[in-house]
Specification:
Belongs to the UPF0437 family. Pfam families: Rop-like. Keywords: Coiled coil, Nitrogen fixation. The protein is an all-alpha fold. The protein has a single domain, classed as Helix hairpin bin (Helix Hairpins, Orthogonal Bundle), CATH 1.10.287. 84% of the residues lie in helices and 0% in strands. The chain is built from 2 helices and no strands. α1 packs antiparallel against α2. The protein is elongated and about 50 Å long. The two termini are 16 Å apart. The relative contact order is 0.18.
Length: 67
């Protein structure tokens, strides 16, 4: 598998994880004030996955532009 294909696969997986993290954060927000102590952990998880997704998208764009 080429580097481009591997990176595209990575981005798709990260997009899926990011969507799940977003929904978890959304569900937590809807249930507030129940489980308010979970806010930092859930938000941090979402932040990390979106950060990783952003970096992978930038890497993919750079790779696509270099070809």
């Amino acid at each position: 598998m080429s580097d481009l294909a591997l990176l595209q696969k990575k981005v798709r997986k990260l997009q899926s994880r990011a969507g799940a993290a977003k929904m978890e954060l959304h569900d937590l927000a809807e249930d507030l004030p129940v489980n308010w102590t979970e806010i930092k952990a859930v938000a941090w998880k979402a932040f990390e996955v979106f950060s990783e997704l952003d970096a992978a998208k930038q890497e993919l764009a750079a790779l696509e532009n270099s070809q």
